[in-house]
Amino acid sequence: MEKPNYKNGSIVNLMSSVGGAFGVKSMYNELALLSAKELKDVRNVVLIVLDGLGYEFLISKESVLHEGLRGKITSVYPPTTSAAITTFATGVAPQQHAVTGWFMHLKEVGTVSTILRFCPRAGGAPFSAQGVSIIDVLDVKTLSSQMEVSAYEITRNDLIDSDYSAMVSEGKTVLGYDTLNGFFTQIKQAIQHHKKRKYIFAYWPSIDSLCHEYGTNSTEVNVHFRELDKKMKAFLRSIQGTDTTVIITADHGLIDVPKERVIKLADHPKLQEYLTLPFCGDSRTKYCYVHPAKAKQFEAYVKTKLRNYCEMHTSEDFIKKGYFGLFTQNPKLADRVGDYVLCMKENYIFFDEVLGENKHINKGNHAGGSKEEMFVPLVVFKV
User: Fold this and answer.
1) Chain-centre distance of CA 372, in angstroms?
2) Are 180 and 277 found together in one domain?
C-alpha cells in the first residue's frame, strides 16, 4: 500500500512551491521536483489539474505531456477528488483541511453528506438551502486569498455556483466553460488579461468521469485522451512567448474493478449490525462508525470474513501513522474518519448503499493505496 510523500514529493508540497512563489509561507516543504524559486519571476503560473490522470495511466500513452514530464509525485490520502482538490485550493493536507472523502459524516449537521455537493448522501437540496454555510463546516483558508496577485479559476459552468466551488474559489476570478475548446480558451484569456503576475488554476474532469463509467482502458477513455492531448499541444503552441509556466498534474489515478471484486455490504448483514452509521469515504477506503459494545465483534468479523479483501486500521492509529498529513491535525478530523479504516486490497471495492441513493457501481475506482491511484504526474512547460 503506497503512502503519500508529504515530506517533499506530494501535491501538498507542489502547492507549497506554488504558494511560495507568490509569497505564501507553508508549514509543508516545497516540492523537490519544482521549487518556488523556479516560479518566482514568472509572469503567469498556470496549474492544470486533469482529474483522474494517474502517472501509470500517462506513461502507457503517447502524449505531448511526456515532453515536460519531470516525474511522479503522490496524491494525498485518500487519493480522491474531494480531498485532493481541497489540497490544491488550500495548500494543506487532509490532516489540516479535514476533507476525507466523497461521503463524510458531518457532526455539525447530524448526517452523512456528499461533501462536494454539500448535501445529504441520499441526495436532495444542499445544506445551504436550510441556512447552513459551508464555511461553518469547512473552515479553510484558500491559497489564492493569501496571494497579492490576480488569481483565476477555470471550472465547468455547472459547478461555478455550487457551495463548494464558491468556497475554494475565494480570492479568484472565476471563468466558466462547457467544452474542451472552451476550457483552453478560458485559460488563454486569463493569461492575456493583463501583463502583471498572476496565478491560474484550471480543472478538467472528464478523464475521471469516463474512467468511472467505462474503465481506464476503454475506447471511450482513449478517444477522449487523444483529443485532450491534441488540444493541449495546440494550446501550448498558442501561448508561446507569454512568459508562462504551465504545470500539469492530477488529483489521483484510477484502477479497474471487475464485478467479482465488488464486495457488497448487503451480503454481510452481521457486519451491518455493528455499524452505527453508513460507511463513509469512498469505494476503496471506508470509514467505519462502530457501536462501542460491538467493537470486538467488528474486529473479529473483519479479520476472519474480510481478511482477503481489506486491511483494517483503527482510525486513531491511521492518523498517527501520517496517512492524512503531518503536523497538528484539524480538531474535526477524528470525527470524519470514524472508529476504523478499511483499506481495500488489490483491486477490490466495498459497495454499500442507503435508501434513495443511486445504486450504480463504477468500473473504474480510486481512493485506495495502489500505485495506479496514488501516483500522479508532474509535467512542466515553460513557454
Assistant:
1) 14
2) no
Running DSSP on this structure, what letter comes out for residue 30?
P
Q: Return the C-alpha cell found at 241.
A: 512567448
Tell me the per-residue pLDDT of 206-264, one tens digit each, with 9 for 90 and over. 999 999 999 999 999 999 999 999 999 999 999 999 999 999 999 999 999 999 999 99
Beta bridge partners of 275: 290
Q: Which amino acid is at 332?
A: K
Q: How far apart are the first and last CA of the chain?
A: 37
- Residue 45 in 3-state DSSP? strand
Residue in the structure block whose three cell numbers are 516560479: 39
301 shares a domain with 240: no
Residue 20 shares a structural domain with residue 73: yes
Provide the whole-model pTM.
0.97
Report the alpha-carbon distance of residue 378 to residue 65 in Å, rounded: 9
- What SS3 state is found at 150? strand
Q: What is the DSSP string of 320-361?
A: HTTSS-SSSPPTTHHHHS-SEEEEE-TT-EEE---TTS----
What's the pLDDT tens digit per position in 149-189? 999 999 999 999 899 999 999 889 999 999 999 999 999 99
Residue 100 inside a domain? The answer is no
Query: Do 50 and 163 fall within a single domain?
Result: yes
The count of other CB atoms within 10 Å of the CB of residue 358 is 7
Q: Are 20 and 29 in contact (CB under 8 A)?
A: no
> How many Cβ atoms from other residues are within 10 Å of residue 220's Cβ?
13
**Residue 90 burial (CB < 10 Å; 0-12/13-18/19+)?**
buried
DSSP calls for 273-337: HHBSS--EE-SSEEEE-B-GGGHHHHHHHHHHHSTTTEEEEEHHHHHHTTSS-SSSPPTTHHHHS
CA distance 313 to 294: 16
Cα angle value 115/354/254 (rounded, 5°): 55
Contacts 24+ apart (CB under 8 A), 239-242: 239/188, 239/191, 239/383, 240/383, 241/383, 242/43, 242/44, 242/191, 242/192, 242/383
